[in-house]
């Protein structure tokens, strides 16, 4: 197999380091480098990863077979459009955009260019998600009555300050955490019809740097199937928490219940630096990136989340913010 030429477009996302590590260790990949507008961030990233920092035009001119978009969410669109014009397949961080207009433009650009678009939803590759999905397809839980999802974490803006900047991120914890569970519902065949959300900003006297940005929330969804769903999203974990956070989903059906914890496979390690949890389960990012490689080579079917999956999840997130602003439930047309 000829190595696939891949590049990173932007490295502002917290996952960029993990992607760089995979690019430089995967034998079937020829990493071309990365583009980044922030010179300070670019210099740090180049020194840390060993990847070359190149202008966007030069990087795309080198002919990548695929690109991974890891910039701030608000600037995904121009990077995706540029990659599509260069004929490169796209793996885009989630949320794929801060507006539906930008998301649609990205999908149209890739469709016109005949390149594939994948949304970075690594949780889809969790064995626990696959097991639950299989049970639902087989009807082992009967008719689903309710879903209850939790996605909590440490606030990522200490490492990447833009995460709590609504102009760049589109929102706060709601934008960061509703998206994964909304995608799992979409994966399981559910269609969201209505959204009611309460997204709570951080009081200025608690954390002045986060004042006005939602740091916690509870979202209630009505589904076309007749089931209901809740998503508990927050940046509630303290800096001393043993790992970044949790992603859990419980399902109640007429014939049984089942729950998943996507990051349950971990052990507790206690040392001079304190206590932390070390995961021993599969590397979900690596599984997602390997799937993207399949899209680029077309040697095997790609099973990752496509543009529509990213778009449908974004619709739910933006509806939650609309519900918060209006103070009532809103419908998804």
Automatic annotation (TrEMBL):
<dbReference type="Pfam" id="PF22725">
    <property type="entry name" value="GFO_IDH_MocA_C3"/>
</dbReference>
<dbReference type="InterPro" id="IPR000683">
    <property type="entry name" value="Gfo/Idh/MocA-like_OxRdtase_N"/>
</dbReference>
<dbReference type="Pfam" id="PF01408">
    <property type="entry name" value="GFO_IDH_MocA"/>
</dbReference>
<feature type="domain" description="Gfo/Idh/MocA-like oxidoreductase N-terminal">
    <location>
        <begin position="5"/>
        <end position="117"/>
    </location>
</feature>
<protein>
    <submittedName>
        <fullName>NADH-dependent dehydrogenase</fullName>
    </submittedName>
</protein>
<dbReference type="GO" id="GO:0000166">
    <property type="term" value="F:nucleotide binding"/>
</dbReference>
<dbReference type="InterPro" id="IPR055170">
    <property type="entry name" value="GFO_IDH_MocA-like_dom"/>
</dbReference>
<dbReference type="InterPro" id="IPR036291">
    <property type="entry name" value="NAD(P)-bd_dom_sf"/>
</dbReference>
<feature type="domain" description="GFO/IDH/MocA-like oxidoreductase">
    <location>
        <begin position="131"/>
        <end position="257"/>
    </location>
</feature>
<dbReference type="InterPro" id="IPR051450">
    <property type="entry name" value="Gfo/Idh/MocA_Oxidoreductases"/>
</dbReference>
């Amino acid at each position: 197999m000829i190595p696939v030429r891949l590049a990173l477009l932007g490295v502002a996302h917290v996952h960029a380091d993990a992607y760089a590590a995979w690019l430089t260790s995967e034998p079937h990949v020829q990493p071309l480098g990365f583009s980044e507008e922030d010179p300070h961030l670019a210099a740090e990233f180049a020194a840390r990863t060993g990847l070359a920092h190149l202008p966007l035009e030069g990087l795309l001119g080198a002919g990548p077979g695929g690109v991974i978009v890891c910039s701030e969410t608000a600037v995904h669109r121009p990077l995706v459009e540029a990659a599509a014009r260069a004929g490169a397949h796209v793996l885009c961080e989630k949320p794929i955009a801060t507006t539906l207009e930008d998301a649609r433009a990205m999908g149209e650009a890739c469709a016109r260019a005949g390149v594939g678009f994948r949304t970075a939803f690594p949780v889809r590759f969790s064995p626990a998600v696959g097991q639950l999905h299989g049970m639902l397809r087989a009807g082992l839980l009967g008719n689903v009555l309710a879903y209850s999802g939790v996605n909590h974490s440490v606030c990522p803006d200490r490492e990447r300050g833009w995460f709590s900047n609504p102009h760049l991120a589109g929102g706060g914890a709601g934008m960061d955490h509703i998206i994964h569970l909304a995608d799992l519902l979409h994966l399981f065949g559910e269609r969201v019809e209505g959204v009611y959300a309460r997204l709570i900003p951080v009081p200025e006297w608690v954390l002045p740097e986060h004042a006005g940005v939602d740091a916690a929330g509870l979202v209630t969804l009505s589904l076309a199937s007749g089931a209901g769903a809740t998503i508990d999203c927050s940046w509630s974990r303290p800096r001393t928490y043993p790992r970044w956070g949790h992603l859990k989903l419980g399902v109640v059906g007429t014939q049984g219940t089942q729950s998943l914890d996507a990051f349950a496979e971990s052990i507790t390690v206690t040392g001079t630096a304190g206590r932390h949890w070390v995961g021993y389960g599969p590397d979900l990012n690596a599984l997602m990136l390997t799937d993207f490689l399949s899209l680029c080579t077309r040697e095997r079917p790609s099973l990752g989340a496509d543009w529509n999956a990213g778009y449908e999840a974004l619709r739910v997130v933006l509806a939650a913010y609309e519900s918060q602003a209006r103070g009532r439930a809103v419908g998804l047309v």
